[in-house]
Design goal:
The protein is of the alpha/beta class. The protein has helices spanning about 10-20, 35-45, 55-65, 85-90, 105-110, 135-145, 145-155, 160-175, 180-190, 205-215, 215-230, 245-255, 290-295; strands at about 25-30, 50-55, 75, 95-100, 230-240, 280, 285, 300-310. Strand 2 (about 50-55), helix 3 and strand 3 form a beta-alpha-beta unit. The longest helix has 15 residues, at about 215-230. The radius of gyration is 20 Å and the shape is globular. Bound molecules: S-adenosylmethionine.
Protein backbone atom coordinates (compact mmCIF):
# COMPACT_ATOMS: atom_id res chain seq x y z
CA UNK A 1 0.00 0.00 0.00
CA UNK A 2 1.19 3.48 -0.83
CA UNK A 3 2.24 5.63 2.12
CA UNK A 4 -0.46 8.03 3.23
CA UNK A 5 -3.41 5.97 2.06
CA UNK A 6 -5.92 3.98 4.05
CA UNK A 7 -8.41 1.62 2.44
CA UNK A 8 -11.68 1.93 4.40
CA UNK A 9 -12.79 -1.40 5.87
CA UNK A 10 -16.35 -2.74 5.72
CA UNK A 11 -17.36 0.32 3.69
CA UNK A 12 -20.70 -0.95 2.34
CA UNK A 13 -21.84 -2.42 5.68
CA UNK A 14 -20.91 0.90 7.37
CA UNK A 15 -22.95 2.94 4.88
CA UNK A 16 -25.85 0.52 5.31
CA UNK A 17 -25.44 0.66 9.10
CA UNK A 18 -25.40 4.48 9.16
CA UNK A 19 -28.41 4.45 6.83
CA UNK A 20 -27.20 7.75 5.36
CA UNK A 21 -29.91 10.32 4.64
CA UNK A 22 -28.86 12.98 2.10
CA UNK A 23 -29.73 15.93 4.34
CA UNK A 24 -28.49 14.29 7.55
CA UNK A 25 -25.80 15.24 10.04
CA UNK A 26 -23.03 12.69 10.60
CA UNK A 27 -19.91 12.37 12.75
CA UNK A 28 -16.86 10.41 11.63
CA UNK A 29 -15.05 10.20 14.97
CA UNK A 30 -11.93 8.62 13.41
CA UNK A 31 -11.16 10.42 10.13
CA UNK A 32 -7.85 8.64 9.41
CA UNK A 33 -7.38 9.34 5.71
CA UNK A 34 -11.07 9.90 5.15
CA UNK A 35 -12.03 6.73 3.31
CA UNK A 36 -15.35 6.45 5.12
CA UNK A 37 -15.82 10.23 5.28
CA UNK A 38 -15.54 10.62 1.50
CA UNK A 39 -18.11 7.87 0.92
CA UNK A 40 -20.50 9.54 3.37
CA UNK A 41 -19.99 12.92 1.66
CA UNK A 42 -20.81 11.27 -1.70
CA UNK A 43 -24.24 10.44 -0.29
CA UNK A 44 -24.99 13.84 1.25
CA UNK A 45 -26.82 16.67 -0.47
CA UNK A 46 -25.91 20.34 0.03
CA UNK A 47 -28.10 20.27 3.15
CA UNK A 48 -26.08 17.46 4.72
CA UNK A 49 -23.25 17.86 7.19
CA UNK A 50 -20.24 15.76 8.19
CA UNK A 51 -18.13 16.56 11.24
CA UNK A 52 -14.92 14.55 11.38
CA UNK A 53 -12.56 14.13 14.34
CA UNK A 54 -9.03 12.78 14.63
CA UNK A 55 -6.36 13.17 17.32
CA UNK A 56 -3.54 12.70 14.81
CA UNK A 57 -2.32 16.02 13.32
CA UNK A 58 -1.27 14.17 10.14
CA UNK A 59 -4.87 12.97 9.65
CA UNK A 60 -6.17 16.49 10.19
CA UNK A 61 -3.64 17.91 7.71
CA UNK A 62 -4.69 15.33 5.13
CA UNK A 63 -8.35 16.29 5.62
CA UNK A 64 -7.54 19.97 5.16
CA UNK A 65 -5.58 19.19 2.02
CA UNK A 66 -7.90 16.66 0.41
CA UNK A 67 -11.38 17.97 1.27
CA UNK A 68 -11.20 21.65 0.40
CA UNK A 69 -14.00 24.17 0.03
CA UNK A 70 -16.71 21.72 1.01
CA UNK A 71 -19.15 23.62 3.23
CA UNK A 72 -20.73 20.36 4.37
CA UNK A 73 -17.46 19.16 5.94
CA UNK A 74 -15.43 20.10 8.99
CA UNK A 75 -12.44 18.41 10.64
CA UNK A 76 -11.68 18.77 14.35
CA UNK A 77 -8.33 17.86 15.85
CA UNK A 78 -9.07 16.17 19.16
CA UNK A 79 -10.04 13.06 21.07
CA UNK A 80 -13.36 11.36 20.50
CA UNK A 81 -13.58 11.13 24.30
CA UNK A 82 -14.56 14.82 23.95
CA UNK A 83 -17.07 14.21 21.20
CA UNK A 84 -20.04 15.58 23.12
CA UNK A 85 -18.31 18.90 23.84
CA UNK A 86 -17.40 19.29 20.15
CA UNK A 87 -20.98 18.61 19.12
CA UNK A 88 -22.44 20.79 21.89
CA UNK A 89 -20.25 23.70 20.71
CA UNK A 90 -22.05 23.41 17.36
CA UNK A 91 -25.52 23.17 18.93
CA UNK A 92 -26.07 19.69 17.54
CA UNK A 93 -26.56 17.50 20.63
CA UNK A 94 -29.55 15.23 19.97
CA UNK A 95 -29.48 16.11 16.27
CA UNK A 96 -26.82 13.79 14.90
CA UNK A 97 -28.08 11.06 12.55
CA UNK A 98 -25.05 8.80 12.72
CA UNK A 99 -21.69 8.37 14.41
CA UNK A 100 -18.92 6.18 13.02
CA UNK A 101 -15.98 4.97 15.11
CA UNK A 102 -13.37 2.99 13.14
CA UNK A 103 -11.05 2.12 16.00
CA UNK A 104 -7.32 1.67 16.32
CA UNK A 105 -4.47 2.88 14.18
CA UNK A 106 -4.55 3.90 10.53
CA UNK A 107 -2.41 2.36 7.80
CA UNK A 108 -0.23 5.51 7.52
CA UNK A 109 0.41 5.41 11.28
CA UNK A 110 1.60 1.81 10.93
CA UNK A 111 3.47 2.37 7.69
CA UNK A 112 5.47 5.44 8.66
CA UNK A 113 8.51 4.20 10.60
CA UNK A 114 8.95 7.48 12.49
CA UNK A 115 5.57 7.05 14.20
CA UNK A 116 7.03 4.07 16.05
CA UNK A 117 3.99 1.76 15.86
CA UNK A 118 5.53 -0.99 13.78
CA UNK A 119 7.96 -3.70 14.81
CA UNK A 120 8.60 -4.31 11.11
CA UNK A 121 9.96 -0.83 10.43
CA UNK A 122 12.74 0.60 12.52
CA UNK A 123 11.88 3.95 14.00
CA UNK A 124 11.83 5.83 17.29
CA UNK A 125 9.68 4.09 19.94
CA UNK A 126 6.92 6.69 19.98
CA UNK A 127 3.45 5.16 19.32
CA UNK A 128 1.50 8.32 20.17
CA UNK A 129 -1.41 8.97 17.82
CA UNK A 130 -0.98 12.62 18.76
CA UNK A 131 2.79 13.07 19.05
CA UNK A 132 2.16 16.50 20.63
CA UNK A 133 0.71 15.14 23.89
CA UNK A 134 1.37 12.44 26.44
CA UNK A 135 4.34 10.14 26.91
CA UNK A 136 6.20 8.28 24.16
CA UNK A 137 6.57 4.51 24.41
CA UNK A 138 10.34 4.96 24.93
CA UNK A 139 9.83 7.26 27.96
CA UNK A 140 7.11 5.00 29.36
CA UNK A 141 9.28 1.88 28.99
CA UNK A 142 12.23 3.64 30.63
CA UNK A 143 10.24 4.32 33.81
CA UNK A 144 7.57 1.62 34.18
CA UNK A 145 7.93 -0.90 37.02
CA UNK A 146 8.28 -4.53 36.02
CA UNK A 147 5.05 -5.52 37.80
CA UNK A 148 3.04 -2.83 35.99
CA UNK A 149 4.65 -3.74 32.67
CA UNK A 150 3.66 -7.38 33.21
CA UNK A 151 0.08 -6.31 33.99
CA UNK A 152 -0.11 -4.15 30.86
CA UNK A 153 1.23 -6.92 28.61
CA UNK A 154 -1.18 -9.41 30.10
CA UNK A 155 -4.25 -7.18 30.18
CA UNK A 156 -3.90 -5.20 26.95
CA UNK A 157 -1.88 -7.70 24.90
CA UNK A 158 -3.44 -10.87 26.31
CA UNK A 159 0.21 -11.99 26.20
CA UNK A 160 0.81 -15.40 27.80
CA UNK A 161 4.55 -14.75 28.15
CA UNK A 162 3.98 -11.38 29.88
CA UNK A 163 6.22 -12.23 32.86
CA UNK A 164 9.15 -13.36 30.70
CA UNK A 165 8.87 -10.38 28.36
CA UNK A 166 8.56 -7.84 31.20
CA UNK A 167 11.65 -9.32 32.87
CA UNK A 168 13.61 -9.20 29.60
CA UNK A 169 12.64 -5.58 28.91
CA UNK A 170 13.68 -4.47 32.39
CA UNK A 171 16.99 -6.35 32.04
CA UNK A 172 17.62 -4.86 28.58
CA UNK A 173 16.99 -1.26 29.66
CA UNK A 174 19.57 -1.63 32.43
CA UNK A 175 22.21 -2.12 29.75
CA UNK A 176 20.97 0.53 27.31
CA UNK A 177 17.72 2.54 26.96
CA UNK A 178 15.17 1.07 24.54
CA UNK A 179 14.87 3.74 21.90
CA UNK A 180 13.75 2.04 18.70
CA UNK A 181 10.98 -0.30 17.56
CA UNK A 182 13.33 -2.98 16.27
CA UNK A 183 15.35 -2.89 19.52
CA UNK A 184 12.16 -3.64 21.46
CA UNK A 185 10.97 -6.27 18.95
CA UNK A 186 14.34 -8.06 19.23
CA UNK A 187 14.22 -8.12 23.04
CA UNK A 188 10.69 -9.59 22.93
CA UNK A 189 11.57 -12.15 20.24
CA UNK A 190 14.57 -13.35 22.25
CA UNK A 191 12.51 -13.63 25.47
CA UNK A 192 9.49 -15.35 23.92
CA UNK A 193 10.22 -16.78 20.46
CA UNK A 194 7.26 -17.38 18.11
CA UNK A 195 7.53 -21.20 17.96
CA UNK A 196 5.90 -21.73 14.61
CA UNK A 197 3.20 -19.03 14.96
CA UNK A 198 2.69 -16.89 11.86
CA UNK A 199 2.48 -13.79 14.03
CA UNK A 200 5.62 -11.88 14.96
CA UNK A 201 6.44 -12.58 18.64
CA UNK A 202 6.24 -8.86 19.45
CA UNK A 203 2.72 -8.37 18.01
CA UNK A 204 0.94 -8.52 21.37
CA UNK A 205 3.59 -6.48 23.20
CA UNK A 206 3.27 -3.67 20.64
CA UNK A 207 -0.53 -3.81 20.87
CA UNK A 208 -0.43 -3.60 24.66
CA UNK A 209 1.99 -0.68 24.80
CA UNK A 210 0.11 1.21 22.08
CA UNK A 211 -3.16 0.78 23.97
CA UNK A 212 -1.72 2.12 27.20
CA UNK A 213 0.21 5.01 25.59
CA UNK A 214 -2.94 6.24 23.84
CA UNK A 215 -5.40 5.28 26.63
CA UNK A 216 -7.34 3.57 23.86
CA UNK A 217 -9.82 1.65 25.98
CA UNK A 218 -10.64 4.58 28.27
CA UNK A 219 -11.17 6.77 25.20
CA UNK A 220 -13.45 4.12 23.72
CA UNK A 221 -15.67 3.86 26.82
CA UNK A 222 -16.08 7.66 26.96
CA UNK A 223 -16.51 7.99 23.20
CA UNK A 224 -19.28 5.37 23.05
CA UNK A 225 -21.29 7.00 25.84
CA UNK A 226 -20.94 10.45 24.31
CA UNK A 227 -21.82 9.19 20.84
CA UNK A 228 -25.18 7.97 22.15
CA UNK A 229 -25.71 11.28 23.96
CA UNK A 230 -25.40 13.28 20.73
CA UNK A 231 -27.53 11.03 18.51
CA UNK A 232 -31.05 12.00 17.45
CA UNK A 233 -33.80 9.41 18.00
CA UNK A 234 -33.38 6.92 15.14
CA UNK A 235 -29.71 7.91 14.77
CA UNK A 236 -27.18 5.13 14.24
CA UNK A 237 -23.95 4.22 16.02
CA UNK A 238 -21.50 2.13 13.94
CA UNK A 239 -18.32 0.85 15.55
CA UNK A 240 -15.55 -1.15 13.90
CA UNK A 241 -13.18 -2.92 16.28
CA UNK A 242 -9.99 -4.80 15.49
CA UNK A 243 -9.27 -6.95 18.52
CA UNK A 244 -11.15 -8.77 21.24
CA UNK A 245 -10.57 -6.15 23.97
CA UNK A 246 -12.18 -3.42 21.86
CA UNK A 247 -14.96 -5.66 20.63
CA UNK A 248 -15.79 -6.80 24.17
CA UNK A 249 -16.23 -3.17 25.28
CA UNK A 250 -18.41 -2.32 22.27
CA UNK A 251 -20.52 -5.48 22.62
CA UNK A 252 -21.10 -4.95 26.36
CA UNK A 253 -21.86 -1.28 25.91
CA UNK A 254 -24.43 -1.90 23.18
CA UNK A 255 -25.97 -4.79 25.12
CA UNK A 256 -26.23 -2.80 28.36
CA UNK A 257 -27.67 0.24 26.58
CA UNK A 258 -30.25 -1.88 24.77
CA UNK A 259 -31.89 -3.27 27.90
CA UNK A 260 -33.50 -1.79 31.02
CA UNK A 261 -31.27 -1.16 34.02
CA UNK A 262 -31.20 -4.44 35.98
CA UNK A 263 -33.51 -3.29 38.78
CA UNK A 264 -36.28 -2.49 36.26
CA UNK A 265 -35.88 -5.50 33.96
CA UNK A 266 -39.29 -7.11 33.23
CA UNK A 267 -41.21 -4.30 35.05
CA UNK A 268 -44.20 -2.71 33.27
CA UNK A 269 -43.47 0.96 34.09
CA UNK A 270 -39.85 1.86 33.72
CA UNK A 271 -38.95 5.54 34.41
CA UNK A 272 -37.61 7.24 31.28
CA UNK A 273 -34.03 7.54 32.56
CA UNK A 274 -33.81 3.76 33.08
CA UNK A 275 -35.20 2.77 29.69
CA UNK A 276 -32.85 1.43 27.01
CA UNK A 277 -31.33 4.15 24.85
CA UNK A 278 -30.31 1.81 22.03
CA UNK A 279 -31.66 -1.06 20.03
CA UNK A 280 -29.28 -3.44 18.29
CA UNK A 281 -29.34 -3.45 14.49
CA UNK A 282 -28.49 -6.87 13.04
CA UNK A 283 -25.62 -9.06 14.11
CA UNK A 284 -21.95 -8.14 14.15
CA UNK A 285 -20.47 -8.08 10.65
CA UNK A 286 -17.05 -9.25 9.46
CA UNK A 287 -15.35 -8.65 6.11
CA UNK A 288 -15.94 -11.03 3.22
CA UNK A 289 -13.13 -13.29 1.99
CA UNK A 290 -12.74 -10.99 -1.05
CA UNK A 291 -12.31 -7.90 1.12
CA UNK A 292 -9.75 -9.67 3.33
CA UNK A 293 -7.83 -10.74 0.24
CA UNK A 294 -7.76 -7.17 -1.05
CA UNK A 295 -7.04 -5.58 2.36
CA UNK A 296 -5.36 -7.67 5.06
CA UNK A 297 -6.35 -5.10 7.72
CA UNK A 298 -9.98 -6.15 7.27
CA UNK A 299 -9.23 -9.66 8.57
CA UNK A 300 -9.95 -8.91 12.22
CA UNK A 301 -12.47 -6.08 11.67
CA UNK A 302 -15.88 -6.45 13.34
CA UNK A 303 -18.72 -3.98 12.81
CA UNK A 304 -21.50 -3.53 15.36
CA UNK A 305 -24.46 -1.22 14.74
CA UNK A 306 -27.10 0.13 17.12
CA UNK A 307 -29.91 2.68 16.81
CA UNK A 308 -30.88 5.32 19.34
CA UNK A 309 -34.44 4.74 20.46
CA UNK A 310 -35.03 7.77 22.65
C1 LIG B 1 -8.56 2.99 11.63
S1 LIG B 1 -8.17 4.65 11.43
C2 LIG B 1 -9.58 5.32 10.63
C3 LIG B 1 -9.55 5.19 9.16
C4 LIG B 1 -10.68 5.89 8.43
N1 LIG B 1 -11.96 5.33 8.72
C5 LIG B 1 -10.43 5.89 6.93
O1 LIG B 1 -11.23 5.30 6.20
O2 LIG B 1 -9.44 6.47 6.47
C6 LIG B 1 -8.35 5.27 13.04
C7 LIG B 1 -8.07 6.74 13.19
O3 LIG B 1 -8.66 7.15 14.43
C8 LIG B 1 -7.81 8.01 15.09
N2 LIG B 1 -8.08 7.86 16.52
C9 LIG B 1 -7.84 6.77 17.27
N3 LIG B 1 -8.23 6.98 18.53
C10 LIG B 1 -8.74 8.23 18.58
C11 LIG B 1 -9.31 9.02 19.61
N4 LIG B 1 -9.43 8.57 20.84
N5 LIG B 1 -9.76 10.25 19.30
C12 LIG B 1 -9.65 10.73 18.02
N6 LIG B 1 -9.10 10.03 17.01
C13 LIG B 1 -8.67 8.80 17.29
C14 LIG B 1 -6.41 7.58 14.71
O4 LIG B 1 -5.52 8.67 14.81
C15 LIG B 1 -6.62 7.12 13.27
O5 LIG B 1 -6.33 8.14 12.37
Amino acid sequence: MENGTHVPVLLEPVLEGLDVVASGCYVDATFGRGGHSRAILDRLSDAGRLIAIDRDPAAVASANESIKDDKRFEIIRGDYAELEAFIAARGLVGRVDGVLMDLGVSSPQLDEAERGFSFKRDGPLDMRMDPGTGTSAASWLAAVEEKELRRVLKTYGEEKSAAKIARAIVAARETAPLKTTVQLADVVAAAAPAHGSRKHPATKTFQAIRIVINNELGQLEDGLRQAVNVLAPGGRLCVISFHSLEDRIVKRFMRDESQETEQYRGMPDVPAEFRPRLKLVGKQRAATADEVEANARARSARLRVAEKVA
